[in-house]
Design brief:
The chain is of the alpha+beta class and 303 residues long. It has four helices and 13 strands. The strands form five sheets. A four-stranded mixed beta sheet has the order 11-10-9-12. Strands 1-4-13 form a three-stranded antiparallel beta sheet, with no helix packed on it. A two-stranded antiparallel ribbon has the order 2-3. 40% of the residues are buried. About 2% of the residues have low confidence.
Length: 303
């Protein structure tokens, strides 16, 4: 883990997506954070020692998803499945496939494995899976404020974690999409999905993959603009419930799945589609959802 000395920084951005606004000054205390996302090897040790079973290895309860056909209540997860031709960027179903049998051990489906991927970030973990690992390790998931402060790498008010240019000198600084999304990927083999830790430079704090590779769970409930009270910080039980309730997607009131904030973007972020390869960027993710481009890292607060 890396020690991050606390301080004040400008969180958010007034120049990109609406839910990053307003840019505002925020202070964080000292904390320690994992140098890199939790890897397949680390997660495998957790599973071996505890017998833990992840959410996507279990069939969902149709009662939790009104209208779900019972025959679809089978274990699985969302896998990126690139089309072989250009498609409208308004329809993510063109490149996402809910694949039965996909889980952290089988990232592309039941016939795949993580053999040779020990040093890649673990994926196909819901928020509860990440939190369970953190508890086992005696750690926590970061708040959005902690994550963003660490991601800046000391470059306060710079657009990217490494400075002002996306690819200084034409050199990629993170595992983000190269080519035309979602059908034309120019990344070399081994980087077209997750990449090994250390494939790209660390930021100013010595942290790897704070931008790109995989999205990362935080422990903050989603809300537009300023972040609601984060659990494990200063939230009372009432404030915690209020923040959780406010995080529910208003477009899906019948389901009512709460959402946490994820940060950092992934190997699927592209200039023409998802410019969330920046510390200020954020994404609301249902706490029940796992994907092939979503992982996590842990923190330890100062005593």
């Amino acid at each position: 883990m890396i020690t991050i000395t606390g301080g004040a920084f400008q969180m958010g951005s007034d120049h990109h997506y609406a839910d990053e606004r307003p840019a505002r000054m925020v202070s964080v205390a000292d904390f320690r954070i994992d140098r890199a996302p939790v890897t397949n090897a680390q997660f495998a040790r957790f599973v071996t020692e505890t017998g833990y079973v992840t959410a996507c290895e279990l069939p969902p309860d149709p009662a939790d998803y009104p209208g779900m056909p019972p025959e679809l209540a089978r274990p699985g997860s969302l896998v990126f499945d690139p089309p072989d031709h250009a498609v409208p960027l308004t329809d993510p179903s063109a490149w996402w496939d809910f694949r039965f049998g996909a889980d952290w051990r089988h990232p592309l489906g039941p016939d795949s494995s993580v053999e040779g991927l020990d040093d890649h970030p673990v994926v196909h973990v819901v928020h509860a899976d990440a939190a369970a690992y953190a508890r086992w390790a005696g750690l926590k998931l970061p708040t959005e404020e902690q994550w963003e402060y660490a991601a800046c790498g000391g470059h306060d008010r710079s657009e990217f974690a490494w400075g002002k240019e996306r690819e200084p000198g034409g050199i990629a600084q993170a595992n983000i999409w190269q080519g035309t999304f979602p059908h034309h990927n120019l990344s070399p083999p081994g980087r077209r999905r997750t990449s090994a830790i250390g494939s790209f430079p660390a930021n100013g704090h010595g942290l790897y993959d704070m931008i790109g590779n995989v999205w990362e769970w935080t422990d903050s409930w989603y809300g537009p603009g300023t972040t609601p009270a984060s659990p494990g910080c200063c939230a009372t039980g009432t404030a915690e419930k209020r923040a959780r309730d406010a995080s529910v997607d208003p477009a899906l009131p019948g389901i009512g799945i709460a959402r946490k904030i994820t940060k950092g973007g992934s190997h699927l972020c592209a200039p023409e589609y998802c410019q969330r390869y920046r510390p200020a960027a954020r994404w609301p993710q249902g706490i029940d959802t796992s994907t092939s481009h979503l992982g996590f890292r842990c923190i330890r607060n100062a005593a």
